[in-house]
Design a protein that fits this description.
By secondary structure, the chain is mostly helical. It has 4 helices and no strands.
């Protein structure tokens, strides 16, 4: 998130707070969550017998938009996020791109 640090802080309504050093959970947590997402995507690719880049990108879009982006918006729609759609606009594209990359790399490795 360092590329969008100011916008991210504005979306969360914490732009006026002093910057904090992230603890271990903020470093390890995203890695573990990404590993789980990649494993689930690999399972789907295998279960659906996807072997072409076109099909992999289609699955990447379905997962990226249908699950990851939708859940990002759903999580952000609560009182703790003062600008939920702005927050989603920052985060959802990164999840979609990550899903597309994951599917492409997994098909290339198969």
């Amino acid at each position: 998130m360092w590329l969008f640090r100011r916008r991210y802080a504005a979306a969360l309504g914490i732009a006026d707070r002093p910057r904090q050093t992230p603890g271990p959970v903020f470093l390890v947590g995203p890695f573990v969550c990404s590993a789980v997402t990649i494993a689930a995507t690999a399972f789907l690719l295998r279960a659906l017998a996807i072997r072409t880049y076109t099909d992999a990108l289609a699955l990447g879009m379905i997962v990226g938009i249908g699950y990851l982006a939708a859940m990002t918006v759903n999580i952000a729609i609560n009182p703790l996020f003062p600008r939920p759609f702005y927050y989603s606009l920052i985060n959802a594209p990164m999840f979609i791109i990550g899903s597309l990359m994951t599917c492409t790399i997994l098909v290339a490795m198969a």
